């Protein structure tokens, strides 16, 4: 159990900077997920916490101790790697017990602890096997066991589930969650998979281009994305974004070809905004309904429990997710009803969230 | 299972193999067969008939103290030069693997010694190690008489070992470096997270994982030390002083082409061939068991 404090962390490789001054605080026992697209610096940040990567600037402290200059082994972290990184020439029990062996733990105690970990992870019958003879899920569990046996202060996970098939991933996800609840060690989990991120995280850190875009609970990130990037990155299908301009009694969208009437509060007329609306917040209505946008259906994706309907809005792609039993034909017209309280507004220039249209805005006069 | 391209007709496959088979037959099986035949006969030095003598050639060689001396010298040479060349290469490769800037340059530069013909490099080392003018002359200045490969058999042996090792360090280095680089970075990192220091990581993770390469190089180095040493011995010591560096391969040459004892030389080359075969089998049977293949 340990808190992690990250202050102004930077990372340069030769001339390129990949992490631009990150500040984060992870509380003791918290499960934090760092989410971002490939190359956003999330793995680099994790590896800097682990001590596998030199810190170019700033400070990382674990439990109040600055660890910048400490060797990985002195930091009290354990890490689960993306490709598991099991020692191929050692058996499962040797893999799990290696850190204890290095630490000079006597053989009897070592065996006892290996057995205990193996029992937790249901690996007892595999202890004599080599990693080669294990399935992906079993290797994953061995990697977890190797991290667990040291009883570390901090668990670091570097996309540990990305090599598993979909079903196993869901299963391992819940196992990791259960394990965390039991061990209660501070955990930092890096992933590019938003479902993994949403389901695992106590707190979610969304990164992009070496910067932190937003920190919050999964709920906060979903309902109040702090930037256009977060809005479109989190949620599937991605949030629809329509460029528009604020006018006297609403929004002029898509270069003026469409408009939405609504009460507005605070934004000066003429402000260019990006209006975001989640596909699941759009309601399908009959074409021509007052206050709705008419669009042509492009494609319908059947998901079983619902459907994603891709429509064309004057050339702009737009998607609607519905669980209603509607099956519009491609090429037919539909009306899209968007409530002002479901809209998100982002600055067209900076992409930052603009909090002007409050959820309490009354139903617009149509 | 790997998918292989196969030929519909076996004749096509044979046709493709014929050029290679011809080469192997002409330059290996035929001469080797001739050597076996010669070793069982007494050949006249200037041609013109021979006498079948059975195993007499082998009997006379194996009862000759000079020959046993040559075997001992060969084994000493093989053991020390292989050990030296592999150890230095292993250390260099382990160090290079940690700091990779410029490793491409090392790879090119370090393979060069292997490309130098043995007599050429022997000539260079003959000058470098010359007791009266080379680098060792400075040592002789301080301790007179310390170094003279022309008089002292041990010095002569050391000279050819240094020359041979120098050539094979580069060769071994390339293989060791490739083997180190083939170890996933994350394994080393995982070991570091597990609390293992640099030296410990080397012994626990890297060394076991490069055992296939170590084994391969062991076989190659020992075999080559029996064969590729000829040029070095010929230029540097010519087998002397007092047969101290008269390695088996050199003795075959000097007995056969200088002493004109073709049959005795043929019998020696058969013994050398058998020795290499036995050593290789031994290595595969007993050392390979300790190799971890992934």
TrEMBL record, chain B:
Residues 71-283 form the ABC transmembrane type-1 domain. Keywords: Cell inner membrane, Cell membrane, Membrane, Transmembrane, Transmembrane helix, Transport. It comes from the Bacteria. Gene3D superfamilies: MetI-like (1.10.3720.10). Pfam families: BPD_transp_1. It is found in: Cell inner membrane; Cell membrane. It is a multi-pass membrane protein. The chain crosses the membrane at residues 12-32, 71-96, 108-129, 156-180, 201-220, 265-287. InterPro entries: MetI-like, MetI-like_sf, UgpAE/MalFG_permease. Part of the ABC transporter complex UgpBAEC involved in sn-glycerol-3-phosphate (G3P) import. Probably responsible for the translocation of the substrate across the membrane. Belongs to the binding-protein-dependent transport system permease family. PANTHER family: BLL4140 PROTEIN, SN-GLYCEROL-3-PHOSPHATE TRANSPORT SYSTEM PERMEASE PROTEIN UGPA. The complex is composed of two ATP-binding proteins (UgpC), two transmembrane proteins (UgpA and UgpE) and a solute-binding protein (UgpB). This is sn-glycerol-3-phosphate transport system permease protein UgpA.
């Amino acid at each position: 159990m340990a808190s992690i404090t990250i202050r102004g962390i930077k990372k340069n490789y030769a001339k390129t900077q990949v992490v631009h001054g990150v500040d984060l605080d992870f509380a003791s026992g918290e499960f934090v997920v760092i989410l971002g697209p490939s190359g956003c610096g999330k793995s680099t940040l994790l590896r800097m916490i682990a001590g596998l990567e030199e810190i170019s600037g700033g400070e990382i402290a674990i439990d109040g101790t600055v660890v910048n200059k400490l060797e990985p082994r002195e930091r009290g972290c354990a890490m689960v790697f993306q490709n598991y990184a099991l020692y191929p020439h050692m058996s499962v029990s040797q893999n799990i017990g290696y850190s204890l062996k290095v630490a000079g733990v006597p053989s009897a105690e070592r065996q006892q602890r290996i057995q205990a970990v193996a029992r937790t992870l249901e690996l007892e019958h595999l202890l004599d096997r080599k990693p080669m003879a294990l399935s992906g899920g079993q290797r994953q569990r061995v990697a977890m066991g190797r991290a667990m046996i040291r009883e570390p202060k901090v668990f670091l996970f570097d996309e540990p589930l990305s090599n598993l098939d979909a079903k196993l991933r869901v299963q391992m996800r819940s196992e990791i969650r259960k394990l965390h609840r039991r061990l209660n060690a501070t955990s930092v989990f890096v992933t590019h998979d938003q479902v993994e991120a949403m389901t695992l995280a106590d707190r979610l850190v969304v990164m992009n281009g070496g910067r932190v875009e937003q920190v919050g609970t999964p709920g906060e990130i979903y309902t109040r994305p702090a930037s256009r990037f977060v809005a479109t990155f989190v949620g599937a299908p991605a949030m629809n974004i329509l460029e528009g301009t604020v006018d006297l009694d609403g929004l002029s969208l898509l270069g003026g070809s469409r408009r939405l009437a609504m009460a507005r509060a605070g934004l000066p007329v003429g402000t260019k905004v990006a209006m975001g609306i989640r596909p699941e917040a759009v309601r399908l209505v009959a074409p021509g309904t007052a206050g709705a946008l008419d669009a042509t259906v492009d494609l319908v994706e059947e998901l079983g429990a619902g459907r994603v309907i891709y429509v064309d809005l004057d050339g702009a792609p737009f998607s609607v997710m519905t669980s209603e039993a509607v099956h519009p034909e491609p090429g037919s017209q539909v009306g899209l009803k968007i409530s002002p309280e479901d809209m998100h507004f982002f600055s067209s220039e900076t992409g930052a969230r603009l909090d002007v249209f409050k959820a309490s805005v009354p139903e617009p006069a149509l | 299972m790997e998918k292989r391209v196969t030929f519909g007709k076996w004749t096509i496959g044979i046709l493709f193999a014929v050029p290679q088979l011809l080469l192997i037959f002409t330059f290996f099986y035929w001469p080797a067969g001739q050597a076996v035949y010669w070793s069982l006969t007494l050949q006249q030095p200037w041609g013109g008939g021979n006498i079948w003598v059975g195993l007499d050639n082998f009997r006379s060689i194996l009862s000759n103290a000079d020959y046993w001396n040559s075997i001992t010298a060969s084994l000493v040479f093989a053991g020390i030069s292989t050990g030296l060349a592999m150890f230095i290469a292993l250390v260099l490769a382990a160090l290079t693997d940690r700091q990779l800037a410029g490793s491409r340059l090392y790879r090119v530069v370090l393979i060069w010694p292997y490309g130098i013909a043995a007599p050429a490099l022997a000539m260079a080392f003959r000058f470098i190690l010359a007791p009266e003018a080379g680098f060792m002359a400075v040592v002789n200045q301080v301790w007179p008489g310390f170094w003279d490969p022309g008089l002292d058999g041990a010095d002569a042996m050391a000279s050819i070992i240094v020359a041979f090792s120098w050539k094979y360090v580069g060769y071994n280095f390339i293989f060791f470096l490739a083997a180190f680089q083939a170890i996933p970075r994350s394994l080393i990192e995982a070991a570091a997270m597990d609390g293992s220091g640099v030296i410990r990581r080397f012994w626990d993770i890297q060394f076991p994982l490069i055992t296939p390469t170590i084994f391969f190089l062991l076989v190659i180095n020992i075999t080559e030390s029996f064969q590729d040493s000829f040029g070095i011995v010929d230029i540097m010591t010519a087998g002397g002083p007092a047969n101290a560096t008269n390695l088996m391969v050199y003795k075959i040459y000097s007995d056969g082409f200088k002493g004109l004892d073709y049959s005795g030389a043929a019998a020696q080359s058969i013994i050398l061939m058998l020795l290499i075969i036995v050593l290789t089998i031994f290595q595969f049977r007993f050392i390979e068991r300790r190799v971890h293949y992934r």
